[in-house]
Amino acid sequence: MNIFPPVQMQSPKVYPGMEEMKCPSPNLARMHLIKGKDAIDRYLATHIKGLSKQEAAAYRNSYKKNICIDMLRQGYHKSFAELFTLIEKWNALRKASGPGSAIWLEKSLEEQPDKLDQLHYFLTRAEAAQRSEYYEEMYSNQLSLAQCFNKPEDRWLRNYFYEQCFKTAQLIKIDGGKKEAEAHSNMGLVYEEQGQFLKAMEHYEAFYQLTVGRVWKDDTGQTFNSLACEHLWRIYTLLADKMLENKEHQQAIRTLIKALEMAKEAGNRKMEGEAAYCLGLAYHLAGEEKTAISKLMMCLEISKVLGDFVGLGRAYQAIAQVLVSKDEVDEAIIYLEKFMNIIKRVQLSQSLVDACTFLGNIYNQRGNYSKACEYFNQAFSAANALSDLALVNETKVFCGIGKAHNMMMKVNSHTEAADSVSIKYLLDWKENRSDMCSDPSTTENSDSVVLPETNNDL
Predict the structure, then answer these.
(1) At a CB cut-off of 8 Å and minimum separation 6, what does 152 contact?
(2) Burial, 183: exposed, middle or buried (Cβ in 10 Å; 0-12, 13-18, 19+)?
(3) Contact 280, 292 (CB under 8 A)
(4) Which of 286, 225, 277 is nearest to 251 (CA)?
(5) How far is CA 106 from CA 97, 112, 124, 175, in A?
(6) For position 8, what pLDDT does the model report?
(7) What mean pLDDT value characterizes the chain?
(8) CA pair distance 350, 332, nearest whole angstrom
(9) Closest CA to 142 of 156, 125, 117
(10) Which pTM does this prediction carry?
(11) CA-CA distance, 85 to 77, in Å (whole number)?
(12) Worst-scoring range by mean pLDDT, 53-57, 297-301, 303-307?
């Protein structure tokens, strides 16, 4: 007994009877096949409760294709074209990078549904706003897209939408230029990350000009004007570094003076100290030692006020370097010893290595080799504490130089004496190769010379 009632099957009227079936031409057969498929779809949609043709297609198609179809159905042709352009751009970047590159191992944009969802949502909203000439809303949607792609692998997408924001911001005339200022800031960041510092500077300067006298603030509560000053301080410093590498000292000094002015205008004392320090070093490289010391002293005073021991120590060290170049070594040593005291207070091992090496070199150049060895040994101990093999090896070399000079003085004194005791001492020392030479007077009444333990480390 059947539980379910029989299903009344009805064939579509368009289907021919069996007696009419003949072997048609291939093209005609294909046409009948397609018509038959459409008829079956219509029949299933009408008589069976289930998936519609569109719903079935949604399961068969890729996620990208469904999103594209949805955009076109809703009339967002510009969004559809933009999405396709971005997918092609990603594929071109991947192809250009080649196998084995980081981008080659990543999933393509069309294989990442979350990103496609974001693009679909904000692109269509931006296009709708553009049609109504609501350019502020269009800008907001483009900016949201840029902020969605902040990961390193998505930077190209973020930069693309920052460029779109910049174009849209030019069309907004009712906010006093706030969106345009923000767009200049973002474009400056894009060019700075790409190492195009001159282009970044142009955008940051435009950002600054638009914010003068304004009280606009970002999401953190910082004013746009102080943010513009910070951007300009940073980009001027980066540009000056490039100029100093190219020995363009005067141009670098002019750029760093502008950086110092921006730091002062921003009201950021730490930035001001950094700018003064960089300017002092630039004057030192240009041979203007007096001006260099005055700028470094400014950095020193700011660091004292802020309680910035790192900045304080660095200023002491820089002043000492300038004084050494002026042959004012005794005064330089005073500043370096102050530097050493600060380093020990805040336990900066790397700075301790630098300071000890610097002091060791000063004493080594002045012929005080025992004192040089003392500081080189301190540098070696500090390098060991850092577990930096390259630094340990470097300080080993300095220790070897100091010990060799210290030993050579005594060897030379015995050589110059040229008496029998000194000659016997030198011959025994050469045979044993000890580190330190004892006073030959201790060997005058003995048949053999007693030497300290041999150390073959160096």
Answers:
(1) none
(2) buried
(3) yes
(4) 286
(5) 12, 10, 26, 41
(6) 42
(7) 81
(8) 20
(9) 125
(10) 0.73
(11) 12
(12) 53-57
List the structure tokens of 324.
């050494």
Q: 316 and 336 in contact (C-beta within 8 Å)?
A: yes
Find tokens 């746009």 and name the residue: 224
Q: What is the pLDDT of residues 189-202, one digit of tens each?
A: 999 999 999 999 99
Question: What are 74's two structure tokens?
Answer: 């809703």
Residue appearing with tokens 């007077």: 441
